[in-house]
Amino acid sequence: MAEIVGGIGTSHVPAVGAAIDHAKQSDPYWAPYFEKIEPARRWMAETRPDVCVVVYNDHASAFSLEVIPTFAIGVAARFDPADEGYGPRPVPAVTGHPELAWHLAETLILDEFDLTIVNEMTVDHGLTVPLSVMYGQPDAWPCRVIPLCVNVVQYPAPTGRRCFRLGQAIRRAVAAWPGPERVAVFGTGGMSHQLQGERAGLINVDFDLAFLDRLVEDPEAQAEVDHETYLREAGSEGIELVMWLVMRGALDTTVREVHRATHVPTSNTHNGLLVLENVEGRDR
Ligand code: DHB
Ligand code: FE
């Protein structure tokens, strides 16, 4: 039986990807951030999940305003990095897991989560930067990846509660898969940030730290927080944080917090990283 070994929450700031791609990790601006994420990378190297379900949002790279799926799952064998305006990032192509992805699609849709099934798409910084955060620059990504897209770009995004319930359904679906895969679930995006308008550059450290505390300790309560609160407190792009609730829903009720780091500055975003481990057998 497949199992979920842990969850990772991380921002997906494009500049972090560029810093890695252009070997700037030791620059004075970047070194403090990359030092803080080192324990998470060590956990990833020790834990070595076979499959990562990466919950992320596409930023009008694979999709556009013509087609806006609320939830979509990539079932392809391969996903190439998207060209986001400066050419694709020089990172490996992502290897999918079509069998498990189709199982998730089937199980989740029959569980009343109506995912759009995507046979072909490219993956943008929302997915590739979190992989770079956790794995650095390998020649090939050391895990298979199932992309799971959430629309948080065009109103209305799904509620935090819906995202949390989707995570719980993913947990059930993985538990029903007969293969031996050890699965990690990523929730990406956030933390507080606003990229445009009068409040561009908004960062709300207090809100973000309270979000992390509640996500770990009382995710049901965090799942009740409404869109307006995210918008007001965490800025227009802070709504990306609802994707961390998918990750949290896929984990045990009680989890072990392996690592937490937050950092300013990385571009315009309060950058957060959280690694949670399922505590085996505690509440199964
Ligand atoms: C930034 C953050 C994002 O989540 C994103 O999608 C694009 C840019 C930023 O901080 O620059
Ligand atoms: Fe984003």
**Major sheet summary line:** 8 strands, mixed
Head-to-tail CA distance between termini: 13 Å
- The amount of helix comes to 25-40%
**pLDDT average, as an integer?**
97
What would you call the shape? Answer: globular
Beta-strand share of residues: 15-25%
Give the strand order, joined by hyphens, for the main sheet. 6-3-7-2-8-1-10-9
Return residue spans where pLDDT drops below 50 for at least 5 consecutive residues.
Answer: none
Number of helical stretches of at least 4 residues: 9
Summarize the helix and strand pattern as letters: EHHEEEEHEHEHEHHHHEE
**How many strands in all?**
10
Hetero groups in this structure are: 3,4-dihydroxybenzoic acid, fe (iii) ion
Looking at the chains present, what oligomeric state does this protein adopt?
single chain
Structural class by helix and strand composition: alpha/beta
Q: How much is the radius of gyration in Å?
A: 17 Å
Structure, explained:
35% of the residues lie in helices and 21% in strands. It has helices at residues 14-21, 31-47, 98-110, 125-135, 160-175, 205-217, 219-223, 227-234, 242-249, and strands spanning 3-10, 51-56, 71-74, 78-79, 94-95, 116-118, 144-150, 182-188, 255-266, 269-278. The strands form 2 sheets. An 8-stranded mixed β-sheet has the order 6-3-7-2-8-1-10-9, sandwiched between helices. A hairpin with a 2-residue loop joins strand 9 (255-266) and strand 10 (269-278). The longest helix has 17 residues, at 31-47. The protein starts with a strand and ends in a 6-residue tail after the last strand. The model has no long low-confidence stretch (mean pLDDT 97). Fe (iii) ion binds next to loops.
